[in-house]
Design goal:
The structure holds three protein chains of three kinds.
Chain A (H helix, E strand, L loop, with lengths): L3 H14 L3 H11 L1 H18 L1 H4 L31 H37 L1 H15 L3 H12 L3 H11 L1 H16 L2 H9 L3 H37 L11 H8 L12 H24 L9
Chain B lengths: L1 H4 L4 E12 L6 E12 L3 E5 L6 H9 L6 E10 L2 E2 L5 H7 L4 E4 L13 H13 L3 H14 L5 H5 L8 H13 L5 E5 L7 H18 L2 E6 L2 H7 L2 E6 L2 E7 H6 L4 H7 L5 H6 L35 H5 L5 E4 L2 E3 L8
Parallel strand pairs in B: 3-8, 3-9, 6-7, 7-8
Antiparallel strand pairs in B: 1-2, 1-4, 4-5, 9-10, 10-12, 11-12
Helix pairs in contact in B: 4-5, 5-7, 7-8
Chain C lengths: L1 H25 L7 H6 L7 H11 L5 H13 L13 H36 L4 H15 L2 H15 L11 H30 L2 H8 L4 H39 L4 H10 L3 H29 L1 H4 L2
The chains are: A mainly alpha, B alpha/beta, C mainly alpha.
Chain lengths: ~300, ~325, ~300
């Protein structure tokens, strides 16, 4: 005859034992509201950017698609701008620029930042210390200002703006990488791998990278939103995208000249920037919560 | 009438205290029907492994349970008042004034940005409505009482300027500030160096003798128990399984779990003599079941070598096995 | 404490020296001949004019001497002359500085004045609907492009309601730009305050304070507030720097006559001495501010101020 306690122990085991780690992860992902909402919007923006030529009702650059400064509604859902171009189509094509700018900027920042941070953490000593002190120092300067300074000298255009925004974020990526690699490096498995005779490169690639990757997804996602904001700000100031590009920041910049007569010019592109940036922020927060629920309250 | 004033009259009675975590169907009982009594001037030790519910019992008495936990049944009588039925404000007036608590971690239990003097006097000023000057004078007395050197200077210092042992003395002084009837000491020596542990135990013994304060000592350190306790209550998986006088429990434990606990303690006299080499609870095979797994039977049954069928079906009641000695076991404390 | 401040001042000095070096070298980032680029705005400059300009900027010196040349002038307060209008850069910057400061501090006051209480409130009522609402607001706040928020506030308060002017020089015209700046950073401060407070409320010493039978008000305001403030103060320094960066953008939305507008003008005219001066001034402001906040931090935390 079975006693009640083993039965209970059994059911408890079955309750947690049945779901594979992968399915458990999936379940936790779906339960995280910010991850689901943020991820869906990110996916939506990506789809809009990819399918822009198909879903946009008009040619975004065609002058005189409609009347100049037509009120939203009817044929032009978001109205038309000062050249009679369809604003909705321009916002849709703007998603391409935004994602492109974000990817290039994050790419530049990540490549240099991760290299610097990982080198400093792995090398350690006075070299690593010095490198990180410089990064800490640069980090105290707002990224917009660094980007502004760089664009001032490189010359104002979209390519330079992307480079400047990317470079300005290097300290951020370097600091995070440094912290993550340093804490991983101190874990016993790294020593163990070295004792067994694994080469430095092998330790980094096979052992460190898989552990460093998840937190990097978080910083890349949060960094993406910051890059989109900075780049849009530069374009707004006339230092990034140049007319007639349907870039959201630039559209706001020209639209504000008509704010009294046609306020809809500054609504669509602004909402688009806001929603996209928020989606990447939510997504990053969601991944972070998933990685370390205790970190939840300590987010910036 | 004489009963109330008698030094060994009942001070604290915990009756059938049941505490659950979580709500509704997922609620799990972390404490179940915990009952014990503490007389005036007595030191009762609550012993058990981590997870047995020792600290939870203390927090329930103080009304400081974390928000996820709630008392679902029972009474906590302090001098006749049921603390569990008190209003929030009444409970605030009771804490620190009639019952106070000394925590395990002296390093983190003092506020790092307030001076020692401030932390010593604020309770007095609130509970006893004394002037700042009177509170300061009392703080000096308290620091002398707990054996701090140079008390005038200490008042102006911050916790980070004191060693762990000194901080624990400050914690004890704080607990004594309003002359409470009962001090709950939750692992008061665990976080300290061995040599400092002995000093803190001596201090608590001295205070008990001089002020007649009752102490509810919570620990898993049998060495501390042997030195300080008058009586011992053994907790296992949220239930009291045995209560006896200190010597009696060490000499003739009845519950198999208590026996297991004591298995590693060779001889009580040796233990007391060699306080520096304290012995922790022996490693028993298996582990304490988590609150969610606890069922109707004796929680120790799965790990017990003496278990019979009845043990896993029905919780044994506490039975008197000798004068002042009760235990809950179908096999060893049968009627 | 003194040692702490001295060490802090030393690192600040090093920071400024490195910044000045970077600023001096920035001019070599310019693709092509910077002097020709600068002068190209005028009618075709003669070779003599180019040489004179090169000499004025010290660009005819060997690279390693350029920095000393630059520093030498810097120490006498000479930041060079603006290429357009040929006024001293320092004069131009100092004219605009008060406006930018006024805007930045008003923004900081809004951010801290509202953000900290909101954060404290949310932390104390953790898990309530108010807390959730605040967290949504916090994510939204950091995602809002400040230039767009500015335009929306203009639409609402100036165009639709007609309460506040779009531009101007009096305090009323500062309300909208300060609000624009404040709201974004309010979200960050509220979020940081909340997490700091939640962390402190979980500390052992808060339990000790409650075990003493202190009323909740004393537990919160005497025991929890100050330790939480300490960690918030450390980030206010960083926030201020970013707020100054935000000010540059917001000034351009509201035509606020500050350094940010001057900078954008300088960039579009390729007025390199003015741009260099602008960057250096911002670096100095941010460094000085972070030193001041570190001192405030040390003063709040007895573990540093009481050795």
């Amino acid at each position: 005859m079975s006693t009640p306690i083993p039965i209970v122990a059994d059911t408890v085991d079955r309750g947690t034992g049945i779901a594979s780690p992968r399915r458990q992860l999936l379940r936790r992902m779906l339960r995280s509201r910010s991850l689901v909402i943020g991820g869906s919007i990110v996916l939506f923006v990506v789809l809009v950017a990819l399918l822009a030529p198909i879903i946009a009702p008009f040619d975004p650059d065609h002058i005189g698609t409609g009347r100049r400064l037509a009120v939203p509604g009817g044929k032009f859902l978001l109205g038309t701008d000062e050249f009679g171009r369809d604003i909705l189509s321009r916002v849709i094509f703007g998603a391409r620029y935004t994602l492109y700018i974000g990817l290039v900027a994050v790419g530049i920042g990540l490549v240099f930042g991760v290299a610097i941070g990982a080198a400093a953490a792995y090398a350690g000593g006075w070299f690593g210390g010095l490198l990180m002190r410089v990064m800490d120092l640069l980090y105290t300067f707002p990224d917009v200002l660094i980007a502004l300074g760089l664009v001032a000298f490189l010359g104002p255009n979209l390519t330079n703006a992307m480079i400047a925004v990317g470079l300005s974020a290097i300290p951020y990526y370097a600091r995070v990488t440094y912290a993550v690699v340093l804490s991983e490096r101190q874990k016993p498995y790294v020593d163990a791998a070295q004792v067994v005779g694994a080469s430095h490169i092998r330790v980094v690639v096979r052992h460190l990278m898989p552990n460093v990757l998840p937190p990097m997804i978080v910083v890349a996602s949060l960094g993406f939103s910051a890059a989109v904001l900075s780049a849009a700000a530069l374009s707004f100031l006339g230092l990034g995208a140049q007319p007639p590009m349907p870039e959201w920041g630039l559209m706001l910049s020209t639209g504000r000249n008509y704010i009294t007569r046609a306020p809809w010019l500054v609504v669509g592109p602004g909402v688009a920037i806001f929603v996209t940036v928020m989606a990447f922020n939510l997504f990053g927060d969601g991944v972070r919560d998933l990685l370390d629920p205790r970190q939840r309250q300590r987010t910036l | 009438m004489a009963d109330v004033e008698s030094p060994m009259a009942g001070l604290l009675a915990v009756e059938d205290l049941t505490v659950a975590f979580g709500r509704g169907s997922s609620a799990a009982a972390a404490l179940r029907d915990v009952s014990f009594a503490l007389r005036r001037g007595e030191t009762l030790a609550l012993v058990g492994e981590s997870g047995s519910g020792k600290s939870l019992t203390a927090l329930s008495i103080m009304g400081l349970l974390p928000t996820e936990g709630q008392v679902s049944a029972g009474r906590v009588l302090l001098g006749g008042d049921d603390l569990l039925r008190k209003s929030r404000d009444d409970m605030i007036r009771t804490r620190g004034s009639r019952v106070s608590m000394v925590f395990q971690e002296p390093m983190t239990s003092l506020n790092p940005v307030l001076t020692i003097g401030r932390q010593l006097t604020e309770g007095l000023q609130f509970h006893r409505k004394v002037s700042r000057a009177a509170a300061d004078a009392r703080a000096l007395d308290l620091l002398r009482l707990v054996g701090m050197t140079n008390p005038e200077a200490r008042l102006k210092q911050y916790p980070h300027q004191l060693s762990g042992g000194m901080r624990q003395r400050v914690m004890i002084a704080m607990a004594l500030a309003c002359e409470p009837d009962l001090i709950i000491a939750d692992e008061p020596t665990t976080a300290l160096d061995v040599s400092i542990q002995a000093q803190i135990i001596d201090l608590l013994l001295d205070i008990k003798e001089r002020l007649g304060t009752s102490i509810l000592l919570i620990t898993h350190d049998l060495g501390v128990v042997a030195e300080m306790a008058d009586r011992i209550a053994v907790l296992y998986a949220g239930r009291v399984v045995e209560i006896a006088d200190c010597l009696q429990l060490f000499d003739a434990p009845r519950h198999p779990y208590t026996e297991g606990l004591l298995a590693a303690v060779p001889r009580l006299d040796l233990l007391v003599a060699d306080g520096a080499d304290r012995i922790r609870l022996a490693e028993l095979p298996g582990s304490v079941p988590s609150p969610g797994e606890r069922l109707s039977g004796c929680p120790f049954a799965p790990r017990c070598s003496l278990a019979i069928e009845r043990c896993s079906a029905e919780m044994p009641p506490m039975r008197t096995v000798a004068e002042g000695h009760t235990a809950a076991c179908w096999v060893r404390a049968a009627a | 404490m003194t040692r702490f401040i001295l060490r802090r001042l030393f690192t600040a000095l090093v920071t400024l020296i490195i910044s000045s070096f970077l600023v001096c070298m920035l001019i070599h980032l310019i693709p092509g001949d910077p002097v020709a680029m600068m002068m190209a705005q005028n009618s075709a400059p003669s070779p003599e004019q180019l040489a004179a300009m090169r000499h004025m900027l010290g660009l005819d010196l060997p690279l390693w001497q350029q920095y000393f040349h630059y520093m030498g002038r810097l120490l006498t307060g000479d930041l060079g002359r603006s290429i357009f209008g040929s006024e001293p850069v320092l004069t131009l910057l100092m004219e605009r500085l008060p406006n930018t400061f006024a805007l930045a501090f008003a923004g900081l006051a809004i951010a801290v004045g509202f953000g900290m209480p909101l954060g404290f409130f949310a932390a104390y009522h953790r898990g309530s609907w108010a807390d959730s609402a605040l967290m949504v607001f916090a994510v939204a706040g950091v995602s809002l492009p400040n230039f767009w928020l500015g335009l929306m506030l203009v639409l609402l308060f100036s165009m639709t309601l007609g309460w506040l002017p779009v531009a101007g020089e009096d305090w009323r015209s500062m309300v909208l730009p300060a609000m624009t700046l404040g709201v974004t950073y309010m979200a960050i401060i509220a979020r940081m305050t909340r997490s700091a407070m939640i962390e402190v409320l979980g500390e052992d010493f808060i339990r000790t304070a409650r075990a003493k039978g202190l009323p909740e008000g004393i537990v919160l305001f005497r025991h929890a507030l100050r330790p939480a403030m300490i960690s918030v103060v450390t980030i206010i320094g960083v926030v201020f720097g970013y707020l100054m960066g935000g000010a540059v953008v917001v000034e351009n939305v509201f035509s606020w006559n500050g350094l940010g507008r001057l900078a954008i003008q300088a960039i579009s005219y390729r007025d390199y001495p003015l741009i260099q001066g602008f960057i250096l001034l911002f670096a100095t402001i941010i460094v000085v501010m972070s030193v001041l906040l570190d001192v405030a931090y040390a003063w709040l935390d007895p573990r540093i101020s009481v050795q």
